[in-house]
Amino acid sequence: MFKSVLQKIFGSYAERYIKSMQPMVSAVAALEPKMQELGFDQLAEAAQMLRDKLKEGATEDEILNQTFALVREAGRRTLNMRHFDVQLMGGYALHKGKISEMRTGEGKTLVATLAMTLNALGGKGAHLVTVNDYLARRDAQWMSPIYLSLGLTVGIINHERSFLVEWDDKEAFTTKLSDVTRQEAYAADITYGTNNEFGFDYLRDNMKPPHEPTSQRELNFAIVDEVDSILIDEARTPLIISGPTERSTEKYYNVDAVVKNLRIDEHYTKDEKSRTVQLKDEGINVVEREMNIENLYDIKYVDVLHNVNNSLKAHAIFKKDVDYVVKDGKVVIVDEFTGRLQPGRRYSDGMHQALEAKEGVNIESENQTLASITYQNYFRMYKKLAGMTGTALTEANEFMSIYNLGVAVIPTNMRMIRNDHTDVIFRTAKEKYIAIVDEIEEMNRTGRPVLVGTSSIEKSELVSDLLNRRKIKHEVLNAKNHEREAEIVKDAGLKGAVTIATNMAGRGTDIKLGEGVRELGGLHIIGTDRHESRRIDNQLRGRAGRQGDPGSSRFFVSLEDDLMRIFGSEKIAGIMQKLGMKEGESIEHPIISRSIEGAQKKVEAYHFEIRKHLLDYDNVMNQQRNVIYTLRKDIIAGEALDEIISETIDNVIDTMTETYVSAAEKPDYEAFEKEIYEIFDIEFRFDEDRKNFHNELVRLKELAAGKLAAKKESFGDFFPEVVRFLFTTILDNKWKENLLQMDHLRDSVGLRGYGQKDPLNEYKREAYNLFVGMMNKVNNEVVRVLLHVELNRQSDIQEAEQKQERVQTREEQRDIFAEQPRQQSEEKRSPIKREYPKVGRNDPCPCGSGKKYKKCHGINETDADED
């Protein structure tokens, strides 16, 4: 009550935010007559003046009004599209690093030009992130006359090609695309591309050899279009670059032959809510008998158990034409949110191979992770992030807690008059589909266009089949023909059109009403079931009623739908039973619609926990990734190579000291001396008077530094190249090994919950130890190879660089160089502590705990340093 009284006095936060933007809107309007007086070429000159102001120290906020007025005039003159006042508000919210929630059809594509231009004028680049290649290309070329008229360059990043947008006919304001390198597309003032490509390019850049230039520059500013789809829906799946392993694929067929004969309830149970399966004792006995295994849960059969569980999921959980399709002899993933095919994407950890075995197609070899990052951690690297969508408010808490993105709800330019009917609920799916087709037929008879939204390819084809039986002409848009997506959706508002689309297919494409359709009531939306997310239902509804157009929407639901069946239809089933409803009868009531919404909220909360869980684990990896990628960039840049190598040598000696002396139960000076010879190629003997041990270490470091200086002199100008090549090759190989170990670690720590241990804390602790061990191996290997290597001729470096991509093992790596004879090193005792690079006492601990290093893994080291 108190809250509602305050809201009446002061207005809601959204209302107050809109009111705070009014002075900006008025200031831009006041500049409009002055902008209209400018000649076309003077637009670019005015933009250049704003660029100069930024170089002289002005802030973007100080030139905001002039920039927005300039962009508005450029839009009016080149595209005949003048930004509405509410669009100026949307652009302002984007510039301030917020999510601009604008209803579907309010012109978000045009809104983005305001913030993109303002943040690109400083010369650091601005990225616009879209959900697919088509939209990236369409939006960039569509809006480019605005940017080009202001003297800005525009690049496009697509999956296989990159473009620059250039004038085709400047007087007619038409543009053309020119093929360019990825580096050139990123160097443009403004770059459009997809979330996948931006993320993968970041990973690829950090895998490139020293001589190859990176594509991306500093991540400055990004606007994520359909931000809820990219940062929420797709955030459950990390971006992974993987390479094949040499494991046999025959085992998947063998396991599938056994599992496909297992029966639910008799041999195994399944939980559709969590998408998991569990073998029963009877099932275990069958598997053990058929595969000639004495105990499936014996540690030596852990791989077999893993493959059996994957195969069970492939048969019991994953559905053909819902989760995946078989196309051209391959299993292709279907995006669960958009219904689009995802060619090139593969389920990890043997799951894709299990599906290939199920479908009897050729099994591709299992992959090993070479680099990975979550969308959350990638997009949080931008200095400033913003987003646009029609539906963000339902996930406002997640946007704020993970991305620090507030949601600004922007009012519509014209009042929304769409009629959203309450849901119609049936007992069975059969009754529901008959009612859907009846409604389509009735609308079609009057000529009113209908857009039918389905949650899977299977359901879209079922509705299509029912319409064919009644001879109703229609278009089907699903993942099997997404190439024609925009064209089909664009025509969905024509008189008599019936369009069936999976989920959010065609999202971002404007549906214009055909002649005479407005008088019939506009576009009618039919949802064949409720999605797990309210946002996706709202997206479907939002296809109608754009820019003041009339329209309506209705969802048809049955108790057999997945959402109702899994997340609680007992209440509604009870109401229907009490009413004594007969076959074909439906119930329609706001209480039931609210009950369905409650079920959706439960699912949304469940999925949020999954995404948060993924992020918690990736945060640990992110700390390591930042250390590795920063070190790699420093090495390639070469500005502090001498310092890096000197510190690496010091770290190796410090770690050896800990292993053989400081942390050992009994000091082993003989083993210490042996390893000094193997790594440094130095014959060294410690003084028998152990009191001089500290001075001896100083002497050892001086000898190592002298050895390095001699090596540097013998290599001459080639020394930096040798160091860069050696360090990056060894670092990359060890990092790949570490990623594989991290994958195995993550799979195994989950079981520790049964031992009353927190799996996440266990993961942090062991991941830290793995990382320290990896960095010690990197340091040892770099120093050992560098101090033993000899250049036989000047072309060795060039040959080595060409061979670098083929380097897979340590032996191959050694073959590149002509090494001095030496004794092979034995397996060493694992170092206790010390990592590379040295972490400052007040820096965050690389283990991902969030504590300062001195309060976490550095507590002993800090104490020792202070002593």
Written account of the structure:
This protein is α/β, with parallel strands linked by helices. It has four domains: 12-237 and 377-409, Rossmann fold (3-Layer(aba) Sandwich); 246-365, Alpha-Beta Complex (Pre-protein croslinking domain of SecA), CATH 3.90.1440; 419-597, P-loop containing nucleotide triphosphate hydrolases (Rossmann fold, 3-Layer(aba) Sandwich); 638-836, Helical scaffold and wing domains of SecA. It is built from 33 helices and 25 strands. It has a nine-stranded mixed sheet. Strand 22, helix 22 and strand 23 form a beta-alpha-beta unit. Helix 5 packs across helix 7 and helix 7 (108-120) crosses helix 8 (133-149). The two termini are 60 Å apart. The model is unreliable at 5-11, 805-838 and 862-867 (pLDDT under 50).
On the 0 to 100 scale, the average pLDDT is 83
Note poorly predicted spans.
5-11, 805-838, 862-867
CATH homologous superfamily (4th level) name of the largest domain? P-loop containing nucleotide triphosphate hydrolases
What is the percent of helical residues? 40-55%
Give the overall shape: globular
The counted number of beta strands is 25
Which structural class fits the helix and strand makeup? alpha/beta
Strand content: 5-15%
What fold name stands as the CATH topology of the largest domain?
Rossmann fold
Q: Main β-sheet: number of strands, strand sense, barrel status?
A: 9 strands, mixed
Biggest sheet: strand arrangement: 5-4-3-6-2-7-15-1-16
**Spatial gap, N to C terminus:** 60 Å
Tally of helical segments: 33
Radius of gyration: 31 Å
The CATH class of the largest domain is Alpha Beta
| Number of domains as seen in the coordinates | 4
Specify the CATH architecture of the largest domain.
3-Layer(aba) Sandwich
